[in-house]
Structure formats: structure tokens, C-alpha cells
Amino acid sequence: MKRLLALGILAALTATSTAAQSVQITGFGQMVAGTVTDGTTFPDLGYDSDWDFKDESLFALQVRGELNDQWSATAQMVARGRDDFEPEFAWAYVAWDGGNGWSAKFGRQRVPFFKYSDFLEVGYAYPWLRPSGAVYNATFSNFDGASASYAFRSGDWFNSIGLVGGSNEEGPPISQKVDTLVGIYVDSTYGDWLSLRASYLQADVTVDIDDLVPLLDALSNNGFANVAAAIDYNKDPAQFFGVAAEVNRGNWLIGGEFTRTTIDNSSYGDRNQYYLAAAYRINAFTPNVTWGRRDNKAKTRTVDLLPNVPPLAGLRAAVTGVVLLEDFDATYWSYGLRWDVASNIALKADYTQYTNKTPISADADSFAVGLTFTF
């Protein structure tokens, strides 16, 4: 039913236009097959020892219609394999172009966390099969609200400053709500070879995990409501900071990103995540390599709030397990190759080694190959 409704809305956007040339229909997608070559599962991916053809595969269709000289409407539907190709709106907004560098959007759009946020799922747009999982592991990517930006030139620099505000709500199995999301981002490009980016966002985060309810009740009933509050995300203030830089000199590219995420009033560890990537184009082939790190420190002092005595040993062990879910000391090495088969089609392969010194997840290696395209 959702699929029919989504396709019907897209058809209506196209059919109700009074001038065919005022509507642009574009799309992109990728078919990816992957497996774990060493280990059992790979973090943030749905791969195991069997070949999987759905987890990273997706198809998308975007319709943009001109309403008048200043206003337009855009809808982008994405059907992801990991969601059984059930389509959903990734974008659904009305845009205003005020001229002189001013613009605004109202509706569903991308959260400007990362350098590749706006085209994160357009696999054809970057050399590697996927941006490094060391950084690109956010639990949500869209928000409903408004954004405004101002673009201007200063000498050889072209700059864009943007403000965003809104909220996000994700449904089961884990319910997540992000309220009062506000942020700012700055993009700067020097000539045609250097690009810089910085972003800062903050919000109140609520996460409801059904499996955690018995532990929260047990803590509260035993007089440790403060510990329950520390491991329960309930309108906790969160902050995100990110910086990125990229040098692109035609045949070769070097870039990287650093992000830091914190959540106050919780056991959520401070997340420092970063990567460095390099690619070199040789005719139609682009070999690439990426190194990434996740350095997330769990707030183990939450566990110390519980006495280590026999009546509470079970609760202390359970709280320890929850707190250590935020502890990462992980390294990613990715080796990839892109082959531009045609002007809008690229075949990519990726081999990634993941090692983690903490017990949250076991070491694993993955291999994936995919065909990315635009139309």
C-alpha cells in the first residue's frame, strides 16, 4: 500500500504540471552484492558469510517541478533493499530561490552532517563503493523542517552558509525522536580543486528500546533512578561537530573528515570519528584506499553508581553491558576499484578490513561489488 501511494504521488507531481518542460525527472541506483570473508558479521552492514544482494542495493526517482520563477517542488523516493525495496520519501520539500545568493527549503530534506550528506546514496558520485563506515554511521539522515542558505563569492573562494531547523522521528523496532534540531554549516571552495566544510548541530534525543524497559524498571524499583536516567535517552541534549577537506586535482583526490558527537545527561560515550581517503584515476579505472577510526569512549562511571554487592550484582552486570555498547576502538582499512563502464555507469569493488580492540564487536573483513548508475 505504501509503495502504491508513493508512486501515485510521484505520478501526480508529473501529471499536474501545465508545461512538460517545467518538470525534471531523474534517478539513480545501485545493485550491490556483498559478503563477510573473515568473521561472522560486519558492523553497520547486513552481511554475513552468505552473499547478500539486497543490503546496499537501492533505486531512487526524483521529480522536480518549477512552480514559478522563484519557487519549485522536489520529491525524491528511495527504495532500499534492506527495507525490502519499500519506497519512502527521502526528500519532499518546496524550495525558494530569492536571487543574489539567497535560497530556502521547506519540508523533508537531508541533515547536513557530512560532506556527502546531500548525495550520500548516489553511489556514482564518488570513487569508493561507500563513504567510510568509520564516520558515515548516523542513525538517521533526514529531518522535517526548514533551511536557509546564502551563497557568495570572495575572490577565488565560493562560499555557502546555511541554517537548518526541524525534527526527526524514526519508527520501530527502535523508536527514535529528535526534537528542536538546529544547526549551521559552511561550505567553501577555492578554485576548482580545494573544498572545505564545517558543520555544527544540536538537538534533544529520545530513544525508546523495548528490550531495555525491564532493566530501567528494575533500577528504578531498587532506588537507582539516576542510573536508569543515565542509560535511558529521554530528551537528552546532543551535539554534533564535523569538519571536512578535499583536494581534487583531476586525476587524483585526497580528502578526509572528522566528527565528534556527544550526548549530555547520559551514558553515551563521546564519539570521535575520522577517515582519510585517496583515489587516483587511470583512464577509466580509479583505485582508491581509505583509512578510518572510531574512537568512542563509554562513560563507565555510570556503572560505579551501582554497589558491587551480591543483591545488585545482576543489575550491575546488565548496566555494564549496556554502557559498553558505546565503547569503540576500531580501525577500518578499505581498498577499492572503480571502473567507469559508461558516462553514467560505474562498476565498483571494495574490500574492507575492520578491527576493534573492544568487545562490542568482533573483527571482520568484507568484500562487495556493485553497479552504480544515474539516469
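(the above was protein one; protein two follows)
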Amino acid sequence: MKFDYNEEQRLLSDSVRRFVAQDYGFEARRAIVASKEGMSATVWSTLAELGLLGLPFSSDDGGFGGGAVDLMGVMEAMGEGLVVEPYLSTLMASRCVAAAGTDEQKQRILPGVIDGSIRMAFAQGEKDARFDLDHVQARATRAKEGFALEGEKLAVVHAPVADFLVVSARSGGKGISLFLVDAKSAGITLRSYRTLDEMPAADISFRNVPCTLVGTEGEALPIIEAVVDFATALVCAEAVGALKYANDATLEYLKTRKQFGVPIGAFQALQHRMVDMVISYEQAKSMASLACAKIDSAKDAAERKRVVSAAKIRIADACRHVSQESVQLHGGMGMSEELKVSHTFRRLTAIAQQFGDADHHLERLARG
């Protein structure tokens, strides 16, 4: 599939790439990762100033009315720079509010998201759920004012730095609902940690936590599926940026590392492996483009799911192939903390699993 950005998309992508190159270099990122929060308030403000936080929201909500295709260049730049800010987490949670929230909830949340004063996280995963979005055991019961939430959520990325959470739970025997929760509410316990790819995350326990319903009670599953497909398409685009960096760094190393008096890139066996890496990157880029385009255009949920799953299968394979080859071709130093390619390896490994691994999406694709 051939895909070219229009002028506005290209300019936006270029501006994000310049910002990442100038202000989010590898050493700057290492300092952010080593900080207590694992993110940078300064960088977050810059993302808001660039309009990236308002890009996917409608003009009625104060945004710019962009779609997944408009975000592709942004995510590619973030993937190339290994950005650890809570961008996707905030978009997922706030997209739930934008899709199903009341006018009061939208006015309470979306302007703050767009101007950078509110960060959010989407709490969906639970014990034994694997990638099944319908596996929800958390419960919400009616209280004097709104609902009270009970249960646990696991591996909630960016929960430690979130101001609000959007949480899935079952309520009143009516299926799965979404609830808006103030992250500072009493009854919330976080066990914080860092993920393989250095993102701040937490397992969350809710005990009689006040929350408000988002959307119609018991009818949230289609919204959750749409939001997760949206996020899956965007991490596919993020993977494209990370794959590009891994390829570029590996090619540069093959040109400069010498063995037997010549650059190792002169050896035909290594040239063939490098060519295979480039092919994986090009195929991944095409599938990511198709997935983002389908997110914006699909009228039928089944069609959207098929294309997103097909893209994630190809992306997961490319992540495995390119990340492992890049480390192997760098030799022992490919796994050192001081080399960015080792951190790219971790992020690509995580992306291959995020929102469903290849086996999960093969099964979903087979179900149609």
C-alpha cells in the first residue's frame, strides 16, 4: 500500500520530529525515565502547545478534528524517540469520555486534556483476562451519589501519573460499563512499577471508590473495542518509527564496525539480513497506514477489527524480527544500557504484545 502524507500532516510530523531530536534525545530520555514520575511535565506542556493533545478531538470539544491518519506521523516520531509520556494513555481514556460522556463530563475533562492540565489512564486489564476485553470482574454498585467501585485492575500504564482514570466494570447485571474516577479518591491503592519498556504503570485496587457513569450502563463493550482498536492502530504507527530507528542504527553500525580490516557491512551474509530488516519495516509501514486509514473510514466494526488485527499480526512479526536482528548485528554491545538500540529492542518487544499478540489477533481475524 502506498501512503503519502498531505502537506499539513507532513508539517506536523516534521515539527514533532524536530522537537524529539532537539529536546528528547537519548540522554534526556534517560534522565526522564530515571525521575520519580517517569515522565516530564515540561515535555507534556510542549505536547499541548504543539496541539497534539487536541488533535484527535472534534471542534465541538475544542479540538482540531483529526483522526488516526493525522496521528500517524506523531506516533512514528514518538516511536523513533522512545517517548515515555502518557500520550496514548490519555487519548484512550479521554476518547471514552468524548464518545460516550455527558456534556458536563466532556466540559470537565476534555478542555483540561487539550491544554495539558489533565493526564489520564485507561484501566481495563484484569487477572486471567489476557487480551479478552469482555473479561471484566470489577463491580460498580449504585450509591447515594453515583456509583461505588470495587475490584482490581492490572498493568495500568501511566496510572501513577494520571489525574483521572476511566475504568471498566460490571454494574447492575447489565454488562460492562465505563466509569470516571478521580485518581486521588479515597479507597484507591496503587502498586507502582516500571514496565519492560520503562513506562510507569501500576496494579490498582478499588475499595468503595466513588465514580460516575460514562455512557449508557451495561453497553460499554463496543466503545471499549473501538478505543482499543484505535490505540492498536496508533501503536502500529509508533512501531514504524521504532523500526526505522533500529534499522538506521544497525545500518550505520555495519558501515563503521570493522572486522578483518573492512566494514562488516561488506559481508554479503550481513547485507542479506539487513535487506530483510528493511523489507519488514516497509511491510509494517504499509499495514500501519492501512490500519489507521480504516480506523478513520470504517463504518462496520467487523471490518475495522479485521484490518486492525491483520496489521497487528504483521507489526508483531516485524517487531520481533527487526528488534532481534538489530541486537544480534550489534553484537554484545547491542544489549548494553548505554546504547539506544537496546531500549528500542524493549519497546518493540512490548509493542508486539500490547493490545494483543500475534496469536490473539490471528484468532480474532479467523473469527471474522
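Reviewer note on protein two: The chain has a mean pLDDT of 95.
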